[in-house]
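Incident log, structure service

09:12 report received: a user says their structure output differs between two submissions of the same chain.
09:20 pulled the input from the user's history:
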Amino acid sequence: MFRPRVALASLSGEADAQWARAGAAHVGCAFLGGIALDESTRAAARAMTDRDRSEFLPSDPIAFVDAQFGALADAPLRPAFNVRSATRAPVERAGAVCRDHDAVLELNAHCRQAEMCAAGAGEALLRDPDRLAEQVTAATDTGATVSVKVRAEVDGVDLPDLAVRIESAGADAVHVDAMDSESVVGAITDATDLFVVANNGVRGPVTAREYFEHGADAVSVGRASDDPDVLRAVRTAADDRRAREATT
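09:34 re-ran on a clean worker, output below:
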């Protein structure tokens, strides 16, 4: 899906094309966003900004996604966009844009902010696998490469089972915020053939290697994504892992 097997993970209201370019020398992919696509999630995002959260709120979110990809047309990485929606139609439009840019559409089933969950997006989708699967199918039907961002340790949610469900719906990848449950990465890789990106606490080679040992195909860096020393160290760990795999 991308090489090197290190990604920049989306940071709400901060992860734009300029941010992606700053880390491009060390990563194979950058997940821009997240961005709210439909009226209910945009209302939620506006409410979140009222309590000092950073959010992208352009007048036309689909045009914004397209423009951000355009700004990365010559960047040496694969772009991706993390999107939030409670409805299907905007996912289809965003999927078409991602397809046209050979980018990854990442469906956000991860955000746990109360406003976004009340709108029926983010973590609410983890608890509603039928609607999540519908969004996956809507996106894959456009021809886009599709990832789903998920969170571990959500009560009542079996992530390996959910991963099987989204794979059946057509997803290509799952981006796992492992929280303190690194072993869930291995459980997902055992249950599916999805490309697994492991996230949470990746700030150096030790954490990166741990995720790779659990079976992750790639790792992503979130809060430390603006630190070139961290990105360089994680890239080295990913390259070392790939070199070892090539000799076995």
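09:41 both user submissions now match this output. Likely a transient worker issue. Closing.
09:42 reviewer note: The mean pLDDT is 96. The CA atoms of residues 94 and 201 lie 29 Å apart.
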